[in-house]
Design brief:
Strand order of the largest sheet: 3-5-8-9
Distance between the termini: 36 Å
Order of helices and strands: EEHEHEHHEEEEE
Oligomer: single chain
Structural class: alpha+beta
Strand content: 15-25%
Helix content: 10-25%
Number of strands: 9
């Protein structure tokens, strides 16, 4: 078992079903007709539930304190703070940044687009929405940022983007490790990276 998989799972996530490798299946993940999770594809019905009911996109439980977003550095440096995934609990986001192959493994090289799901496996009443402008490969640096509010921007293709203009806190992650500012030992602030 890899060291990543020995990371203690937050209580909020312990009720999630696991795949055959032992990874928890996030609430937001689309399942195909056979029930298999498609980790690289968001279920847009569940994304809307996250927004309307204030649910964490990973554990599916209600959030009460602030909104945490995970994204590549381009998401945080974007003029509007643009994200395609709904907000999370801090504990769920931190776990994902340590364990998720896409977020934590420097050797992750698979594409992250929806081309792997065959049309015959798409669940009924599900429309796959291409997230244009999202690079298909893994960023080298990820941010985890907290805000008190966000806005939704609706795209012509039916998707929506979460926009954030006012960060209360941002920390940086690389290869499953929080990057600390050398002089303070705390997470490096946004302005040190830009």
């Amino acid at each position: 078992m890899s060291e990543r998989m020995k990371t203690p799972m937050p209580k909020l996530m312990r009720s999630l079903e696991k795949d055959e490798r032992g990874y928890p299946i996030p609430f937001l993940v689309l399942r195909d007709k056979s029930g298999q999770p498609q980790f690289t594809i968001n279920d847009h019905t569940k994304a809307r539930q996250c927004v309307t009911k204030r649910l964490c996109a990973i554990c599916g439980k209600r959030m009460s304190d602030g909104y945490w977003f995970v994204g590549g550095i381009r998401c945080f440096l974007h003029e509007f703070g643009a994200f395609i995934d709904p907000p999370l609990h801090y504990e769920c986001a931190e776990y994902a940044l340590k364990v998720c192959p896409f977020l934590a493994l420097p050797s992750y090289t698979k594409r992250i687009d929806s081309k792997k799901l065959k049309p015959e496996n798409v669940p009924e009443n599900t429309a796959l929405i291409e997230n244009l402008g999202v690079p298909p490969f893994r960023p080298t640096l990820f941010g985890l940022g907290m805000t008190a509010k966000y806005n939704l921007k609706f795209e012509p293709n039916g998707s929506f983007i979460f926009t954030v203009n006012d960060w209360l806190y941002v920390e940086w992650w690389q290869n499953g490790q929080r990057q600390l500012a050398p002089e303070t030992g705390i997470a490096a602030p946004l302005e040190e990276v830009s």
